[in-house]
């Protein structure tokens, strides 16, 4: 992958920050970020500033971020944030084409400089997940996500797992519901998106043996500490993670897992026509 040697990454909230070690003007950097990520970095609070510092990881030099002056300071993605982290005496170049760099010698505080100069830069990529800090049963969480977002998150890949880990660290419960479900009638785990489980991150003693269904159906959660998956009774009330991406269509999800809205004593049944498909 191209960015392996060029970028460091750090997560914060819904943004994943990437440091790209190419020397480019601000405009060139903006174009690069928009083509390969989401945009040049927007930094809206101290938590995000700390995440950017973690991504830079002590590297020396100057780094473009997405702030530029027009008639006022505007972020590249149009975000309306008043957060600033200026170096002492900055900004001091308020005439002409000026953009913002991070200065490593001043703790990565902000400096305004001519946008034409070549410099490494920081991009961000939006994470299409949202942590809901309400406490709901698994079924309630599923219904909430489908009514208000897209679905409970299905963790198909290590990349999605990393997003989940980032979002889950802000949870107010020890475990967080995801779209992982066990069917006692058929004896296996699956994602509510209808896809099989290929990538796995089970905690020891979970998910790989015969489940105890004597007290009801079981669903999957992520531990907010270890970030591994565990099997829990569905009636526990936890925070949960919804996806905001349209990658998994609501129509396909409902057709695959069509009985989840029935009373809790009804055994849910998968649609075999779509279970072994990726959506």
Automatic annotation (TrEMBL):
InterPro entries: C-type_lectin-like, C-type_lectin-like/link_sf, C-type_lectin_CS, CTDL_fold
Source organism, top-level taxon: Eukaryota
Keywords linked to the UniProt accession: Disulfide bond
Domain C-type lectin: 12-124, 123-243
Record has Disulfide bond as a keyword: yes
Cross-referenced PANTHER family: C-TYPE LECTIN DOMAIN FAMILY 20 MEMBER A-RELATED, C-TYPE LECTIN DOMAIN FAMILY 4 MEMBER K-LIKE-RELATED
Full protein name: C-type lectin domain-containing protein
């Amino acid at each position: 992958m191209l960015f392996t040697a060029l970028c460091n990454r750090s997560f914060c909230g819904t943004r994943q920050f990437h440091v790209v070690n190419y020397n480019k003007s601000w405009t060139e950097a903006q174009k690069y970020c928009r083509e390969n990520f989401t945009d040049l970095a927007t930094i809206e609070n101290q938590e995000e500033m700390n995440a950017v510092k973690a991504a830079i990881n002590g590297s020396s030099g100057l780094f473009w971020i997405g702030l530029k002056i027009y008639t006022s300071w505007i972020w590249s993605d149009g975000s309306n944030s008043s957060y600033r982290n200026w170096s002492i005496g900055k900004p001091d170049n308020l005439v002409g084409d000026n953009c913002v760099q991070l200065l490593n010698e001043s703790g990565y505080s902000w400096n305004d400089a001519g946008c034409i100069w070549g410099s490494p830069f920081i991009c961000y990529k939006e994470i299409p997940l949202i942590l809901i800090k309400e406490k709901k049963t698994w079924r309630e969480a599923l219904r909430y996500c489908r009514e208000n977002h897209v679905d409970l998150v299905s963790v198909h890949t290590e990349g999605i797992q990393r997003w989940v880990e980032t979002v889950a660290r802000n949870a107010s419960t020890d475990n967080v519901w995801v779209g992982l479900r066990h069917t006692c009638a058929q004896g296996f785990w699956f994602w509510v998106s209808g896809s099989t489980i290929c990538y796995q991150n089970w905690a020891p003693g979970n998910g790989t043996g015969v489940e105890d269904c004597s007290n009801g159906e079981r669903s999957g959660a992520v531990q907010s500490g270890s970030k591994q998956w565990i099997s829990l009774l569905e009636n526990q009330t936890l925070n949960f993670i919804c996806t905001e991406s349209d990658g998994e269509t609501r129509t396909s999800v409902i057709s695959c897992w069509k009985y989840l809205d029935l009373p809790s004593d009804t055994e849910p049944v998968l649609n075999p026509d779509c279970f072994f498909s990726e959506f």
